[in-house]
Amino acid sequence: MNKNLLTVVVVIALVGLSSHTFAQASGNQPSGNLVYAADGYIYGAYTKTTDTGTRPSTVYRYLPGATTIDPIYRFNNAVVQVHLVDTDGSIFGTLLEYNSSGQAVNSRVFRLKNDGTTYEILYSNVVASAGVHYSLTFGYSDWLYGARTAGGWWDEGVLFSTSKTNPTSAWINVNFENASDRPTNMLPYYSWDGGEDGMWGATDVGGSFGKGSVQAFGFYYEELVPRISFTGTGGGSLDGEGPVNIVNGPDTDIYAVTQRGGATNEGALFHISQNGNAKLHDFNSQYGRPFGKPFVDAGKIVGLGGDFNNNGGFIYSYNIETDVFASVSSFNTASAVNGVTSVVSHNGVIYGIARKTGSDSENGSLFSINEDGTNTHVIFKFVDGYSRLTEPNYATTEASVTPSLQVTKLAGVTNYRIEISANADFTGTVHVVNSTDGLGKISAPGLKYSTKYYARVKTNLVDDFGTVTTFTTHAPEKYSYVTSPVHGATNVSVNNTQVTANIVYGATLYTIELNTKADFTGTSIVKTSASVNQRTLTFNGLLSSSTYYSRTKTNLPSNWGPTKSFTTIGAAPAPEFISEVNDVKVYPNPFERDFIIEPVGSEEVNVTLVDLAGKELIKTRLIQEPTMLGDQLSPGIYLLRIKEKDGRISVKRMIKSQ
Q: How far apart are the C-alpha atoms of 251 and 233, rounded to whole Å?
């Protein structure tokens, strides 16, 4: 049963548990191996090593030719190692978590997006009972395969698989019966004999001669089958011992280095294929035995040899086509770097990580060297000095235009320089905030509305910026609303009502709309600032006992803001009703358009018309002649007060029906 295997540029695995331990250095050390990915970047990690307490680790990437690294994500209390980088930018790795006493407690497999935005645990176990995850490779479809050092039926470790995207999917595929079964690293392969697809694994011991083997694992039958056994010393095509690392070469052939065996028992380099096996080179005591994972690039194998723990070691290069082995460079305490632990190659340049940088035995570095051994250059010295903006949150779309700022705080940092720009390359206007405590604020007039911003942070420990983050500011209408009367206010005056709009940075004119319907489909009362920055506008003639809905907008390009509401005061109590005066006639009542007041026998009449809130609408004096009133009134109930010359008063309720 064949399943398609995911093709990758390179697979980097760990060598036993040695990658998890460091010498006595308490500075910043590289962890794991370098990974050269399909996106053209080199990925890696470094850790601030301490005997107890936190072990902050940084995952980074480096674009060949750049002047420094790009830190992606910071972990606390964990030694992190990058294993794989998928074509969609997903980084897969392992981490070993430590407690406050410096003890390793949890081993986890994680997925991290290469822009630092997404991080999740895919598989986890307790170190004391299940050991450490030390190898990962891509399997078929959506699966990762890996191995760990303990647990399983015989407590000798397991081969496991886990989904690349679903943290709840994980399986135990093989239970190792003894330590000799456990592969030191694995890589995907296509079956030589046309059978099912699977992967290769190398074991340090075991095999037919107990000197190590290369095993095959099929995805269908899920079992490890020894394919090649190393013989140790004494001649022959496979007289190496302990194949600690295997890599895919051209045409799916396998290349392996052994840490022992060979002609001088210092290890050997091998080519393994379906057409036969061949020893390519015997290492000797001049440089020391090989270690670490070789890297295949453009027909060459680049790898490491020697004793990196004692400041020695060398980089070698083997040309597959010409069968030429060469030492690129050797290292010692006088070298620009020493204690090299991993290398990759690209376009004639070798990139590596070292545990020591010149005379600094505490801090490692990323470096480059030409394949001819010239121009050793320290690209970046590992220090725990990178920070990033954590507030506003990454990719938020509702950030304030005067945001409060917060960064990742680091020990020993005395100044954080925060830069914010609307341009990804930080050209043009750049807002700069310097902070001693990792906190800051953009003051008014602040940032632009509805704009995507890029942020980066540099500390006094590193002469470079950390990971760039982004956020987008909110639209201006978000804070464009009435603040007075407050939302839900009652007993608001119907006349001389002061309505105030919230301040919107950058706005100079404000428009306020009032309506008795929440959807503003009724008759609106709209007023706009009469002068620059006028936010309080006066409204008259509001209906009593009515709920008014308010909204505002500004002269900035924007829509109406959030709706608020208030309720006006109830109608004033009607005056005590006084009987009509017989000398004055009022008709018709109710009326549709207007009504007539006709004095009868009275020489002079004073007439006043008010609404139910007591607002005076009409006031006039009539002398004997009939007069028509009310054509300007809206439908409703009104009070008509009639006062005759002799002082008699009458009040009539008038109803305008339409």
A: 29
